[in-house]
Design a protein that fits this description.
This protein is of the alpha+beta class. Helix content is 62%, strand content 21%. Strand 4 and strand 5 form a beta hairpin. Helix 2 (45-63) runs antiparallel to helix 3. The N and C termini lie far apart (89 Å).
């Protein structure tokens, strides 16, 4: 009785199952890598940097002596432009000056939400 043919068929089946399993793993890893890259690309880092720069410019001019009406218009402009151009809801406010390491700094809280990314920051400026 010759059983060599059975071993060849069995090894072929095991090889086919191993290749199927490897193809499944490679397919899933490519999918996970793609969604990770999309998550990184969707984070609006430059939008948040630009927003922070405008807010800091506002507080620099705020210290320079803007009238309350000018301050209100400046804040409304930043909020409206963020909503119009970036589809992002932006709020920012400041607190009273505090002594931080011997310097009088104002805490500024920034809230940014574009529907995908929500970002909150409190910075002393």
């Amino acid at each position: 009785m010759n059983e060599d043919g059975q071993w060849i068929v069995l090894m072929g089946l095991l090889t086919a199952l191993a290749l199927f399993f490897l193809a499944l793993i490679i397919n899933q890893s490519a999918l996970v890598g793609q969604t990770t890259a999309e998550g990184v690309l969707e984070f609006p880092k430059n939008d948040i940097r630009d927003l922070r720069l405008e807010i800091f410019d506002y507080y620099d001019s705020y210290e320079g002596g803007l009238t309350p009406l000018e301050q209100q218009h400046y804040v409304e402009d930043i909020v409206r432009i963020s909503l119009e151009r970036k589809n992002a809801v932006v709020y920012f406010w400041d607190g009273p000056q505090q002594d931080v390491s011997g310097r009088m700094l104002r805490p500024i809280t920034i809230h940014y939400n574009n529907g995908v990314t929500e970002y909150d920051e409190t910075v002393y400026y």
